[in-house]
Amino acid sequence: MTKEVDVAIIGAGSAGLFALSQVRKKTDSYVLIDGGELGTTCARVGCMPSKVLIQVAEDFHRRKIFEREGIEGAEALRVDIPEAMEHVQDLRDTFVDRTLGTTDNMDAAHLLEGYAKFISQDTLEVNGEEIRAKKIIIATGSTPVIPAAWQSCAENILTTDEIFELEDLPASMAVVGLGSIGLEIGQALSRLGVAVTGIDQVESVAKLADSVVSDLAVDAIGKEFPLWLGSVANLEMHEEGVKVSSGDRSVVVEKVLASLGRRPNLDKLGLENLSIEIGDRGIPVYDPHTMRLGDSSIFIAGDVNADRALLHEAGHEGRVAGYNAVHEITAFKRKTFLGITFCDPNIATVGAQLDELNVADIAIGEIQFGPVGRALIMAKNRGVLRVYANKTDGRLLGAAMACVKAENLAHLLAWSIQQGLSVQDLLKMPFYHPVIEEALQAALYNALGQLDIKEEVVELEKL
Hints:
By secondary structure, this protein is of the alpha/beta class. It has three domains: about 1-145 and about 265-325, FAD/NAD(P)-binding domain (3-Layer(bba) Sandwich); about 150-260, FAD/NAD(P)-binding domain (3-Layer(bba) Sandwich), CATH 3.50.50; about 340-450, 2-Layer Sandwich (Enolase-like, domain 1). The chain is about 30% helix and about 25% strand. Strands 1, 2, 3, 4, 5, 6 and 17 form a seven-stranded mixed β-sheet that branches. α7 links the parallel β10 (about 195-200) and β11 (about 225-230). α3 (about 45-60) runs parallel beside α6. The longest helix is centred in the first third of the chain and has 24 residues, at about 80-105. The chain is globular, with a radius of gyration of 24 Å.
């Protein structure tokens, strides 16, 4: 017997749950299908436990400036790693429980625990049962990548799926892949006493396209633990652990953290049974403004489309897919890009980046954080902020930064870019003293002097 519903959502992660929030507004005829452990990637193995670990490491690391502030006794401070990891897990469980609030109260008619496979364009099979749906949303998330060549070292390799489950930390670790997750966790582990070596095949970190920002970040973080950039990592078993080689350098470590990105969970969905276009990377071709696959009744949202693997983007895409599954197809604007790496200094990218812009057409406003008063007080004045603006009219286009409180500055800039504001508009805004935002004010003045606009810019607004 075939069960018929208006909407079937495959995946109960962030994108799936946000899609569900829209679907429920219009119909009770839906199923949410998930075969894995419930609880989102962000809460269980991503954003949240990593930030707890980072906070513990940051608090412990802060002891290194106590002496200059006249605070004595720093040398007596110790960190109990098992207790710290238990704290990470306790808070992680709290965050997971919050995400389970939606699914905990769902009955068996609406929540199917099993793996879905397409039989046809409108029919799924789950646990031997057929589900026919007028609209289907694919929100199956992603899985950490581990190269096949590393399988001989599998017992010594961790991903974010395992690292937060550790009761204790290894004495040494190589972190391979220095995107946001690798950089964050690598620095946190180093600050907690693990001998960390960071490795990436590219010359930058956190996917930075601006070499000025990347160079500062590499130099600042590289003072805490070695960063080997520009060569592929090779692994082989060694009597004392894993030998990790990159270029002409090598190190033997107890464990390796594979932070090489995540692959979309598409391989078991039976996409070959659909009449849809598949792109070069094996991802179904979809409209990012509607999340629809071609002219079909199928939508895709979240990490599974391998576009913007960030929680707030998964939320946006899930809402769009869910809305369009129960309304006439509507195109929605994408939000201004916003990416934050919670290392120290924070790294953030907003809007368009240098590799997307014609440098001849833009003004680049820059401020080095050395003399920024608030940053100096905090002992965090190693940093740089670069804003990109259209030379013709001053409209803000993007920014990149490695500095203290970048997580906050990036939001201000993202909101400004999304509203179409210019350098001139922002300079009319209030800036308190002394605050980190004064660095943004200085960067904006630096950009202002490079604009083609000749008339005087007055930082006052007439009544």
